[in-house]
Hints:
The protein is mainly alpha-helical. The chain has helices at about 5-25, 25-30, 35-55, 65-80, 85-90, 90-115, 120-130, 135-150, 155-185, 200-210, 225-250, 260-275, 285-305, 315-340, 345-360, 360-375, 380-405. One of its GO terms (molecular function) is glutamate:sodium symporter activity.
Amino acid sequence: MKLDLIQTVAFAGVVLFLGYGVRKVVRPLARYNIPAPVIGGLIVAVIIATLRSRGQTPLEFDTTLQSPMMVAFFTTIGFAASFRLLKVGGPQVLLFFGLATAFAVVQNLLGAGLAAAMGLHPLFGVLTGSVTLTGGPATGLAFAPLFEAKGVTGATTIAVTSAMVGIVMGGVVGAPIATRLIERNGLRTARSGRTEMDTPVAAQIVEAQLGDSPPTAPAGEDEESFVLLQSVVLILVAMWVGGWVSAWMDSPSFKLPSYIGAMLVAAVIRNLDDVTGWFRVSQRVIDDVGNAALALFIVMALMTLKLWELANLAGPMLVILAAQVLLIAVICMWPVFPLMGRDYESAVMSGGFVGFMLGTTANAMANMRAIVEKYGPAPRAFLVVPMVGAFFIDFTNALVITGFVNFFK
């Protein structure tokens, strides 16, 4: 049976909530911050692969809307790239952002070098570098077709597997590293009645720090509906104009992922709005729309996953991933910890750095919360890490990956 594009999106939505249900029942999935779209999508992929091995094809999907949803998500990342927000965060945000960007490059150099040493295409190593570790499943799935076109067979399956290993390891390694830094250096902080569990996460930080206030709805219009409508239209306009920008920038010698133009246009709109206040962009609503698009994009991408393509590449991939985990662990000890101040807050930031450089911002937040529940508050860490992990690194990482893709032709 073949589902049309609406039926495919509806099926993806059902599978998404299946993922939420499974994560609620299977506690380790929640503890390691495995995204619900990944859980649901992989369940369907496993079922389809099993039936396929028996000569059956139960479902075929129309994934026409998969790419637009992916572009929509990365467009919302562009809206988060606010220079004003960087200024609010201060020099430490800039330094932490610079470190994350620099070591995204190092991840790719390490991966490409190991892949070449094992007789594989260097881009195989890049795919198991910053694409899926710093970038996570969304970036991996977005870039997979480009890597496939460059000669990396099974790029989508490799991307998902690498991202899942990174998420698990980001959750396992981060808190112990921060604990070791605290204990070894005798670092402590005074406890207060309020813990970091109450600290706003990334989107809330934006509104709290920038005084983000939504536009005033016209008379007779519901304010929440108006803000949602305006946000959706801004995203669509950025995607529309961004399509022209991508087409203008693209060339046979320098390939860009389809969302780069939209991301750049969104960043221009955001920073123009910071200066003029014309749109009064609500980053919280933009993020909500982006997260919805991301969830459906990931589910649709995983439902068509070809798991059988992974068999011959599992060994080399695990070697590269083991080296990547060791790299990030060492980097957190030096130079991240000393450069960020060599104090308690720096140790907590190091745990967060592990989280989003191997997994996702959710891993980073979970690592830091585990530390502050034991040792006490770290407000500076909870300002710096979400800003970089949730907003800025995705923007520069996309440019880093594009550079590597075009270098290893």
